[in-house]
C-alpha cells in the first residue's frame, strides 16, 4: 500500500524502491506465500514500469484470482480484472479496476461506489473522466 501512495502522489522512484524491496524479500523467502493484493497493486506496478517483472516474482507461489487479475492488467484489460475482483468479492478493487477501465458504464459504476464510500478523490477522478467522454461525444 505504501508503494501505491507514493506512486499516486508522483513519487515514482520511491514507489519503485519499495516495490523492489518487496520483490527481493519475496525472492529470498523460502516459503512462497500466495499473492493477494488489491487492484492498487498492479496499478502501482504499471505506473513504475515493473508490472510484468512483479507478476513473474509474485507468480512463484500458489495461483490465485488476485494474480489472475494482475495478469489481466498486464494484458491490457482492466475490465477483465474488474470481473475477476468481482469473483473475489473485493468491492474496493472492483471499483478501482472499473475506474481504470475507463468506459462510460465502468466509470458510472465506480462513481456510484466512491460516492457511497465518501472517497472524494476518486469521485472527482471518475467525474472528470465522464466529463471528458461527454466532451468527446458532443
Walkthrough of the structure:
The chain has one domain. It has 9 helices and no strands. Helix 4 runs antiparallel to helix 5 and helix 6 runs antiparallel to helix 7. 34% of the residues are buried.
Index terms:
138 residues, mainly alpha, 0% strand
Task: Give the H and E element order.
Answer: HHHHHHHHH
Number of domains: 1
How many strands, which pairing sense, and closed or not: the largest β-sheet? none
Put simply, the count of helices is: 9
Q: Tell me the radius of gyration.
A: 16 Å
Termini Cα gap: 38 Å
The helix/strand class is mainly alpha
Unreliable stretches (pLDDT < 50, length at least 5) are none
Q: Give the DSSP E fraction (strand runs of 2 or more residues).
A: under 5%
List the SSEs and their pairings.
Elements: H1 2-8, H2 12-28, H3 40-47, H4 51-58, H5 65-74, H6 78-88, H7 91-101, H8 104-117, H9 120-137
Condensed summary:
With 138 residues, the chain is mainly alpha-helical. It has helices at 2-8, 12-28, 40-47, 51-58, 65-74, 78-88, 91-101, 104-117, 120-137.
Amino acid at each position: 500500500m505504501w508503494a501505491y501512495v507514493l506512486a499516486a502522489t508522483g513519487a515514482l522512484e520511491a514507489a519503485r524502491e519499495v516495490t523492489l524491496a518487496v520483490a527481493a524479500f519475496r525472492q529470498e523467502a523460502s516459503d512462497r506465500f500466495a499473492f493477494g493484493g488489491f487492484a492498487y497493486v498492479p496499478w502501482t506496478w504499471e505506473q513504475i514500469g515493473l508490472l510484468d517483472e512483479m507478476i513473474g516474482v509474485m507468480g512463484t507461489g500458489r495461483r490465485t484470482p488476485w494474480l489472475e487479475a494482475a495478469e489481466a492488467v498486464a494484458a491490457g484489460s482492466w475490465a477483465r480484472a474488474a470481473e475477476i475482483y468481482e469473483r473475489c468479492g473485493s468491492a474496493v478493487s472492483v471499483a478501482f479496476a472499473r475506474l481504470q477501465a475507463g468506459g462510460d458504464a465502468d466509470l458510472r459504476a465506480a462513481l456510484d461506489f466512491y460516492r457511497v464510500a465518501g472517497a472524494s478523490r476518486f469521485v472527482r477522478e471518475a467525474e472528470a473522466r465522464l466529463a471528458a467522454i461527454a466532451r468527446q461525444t458532443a
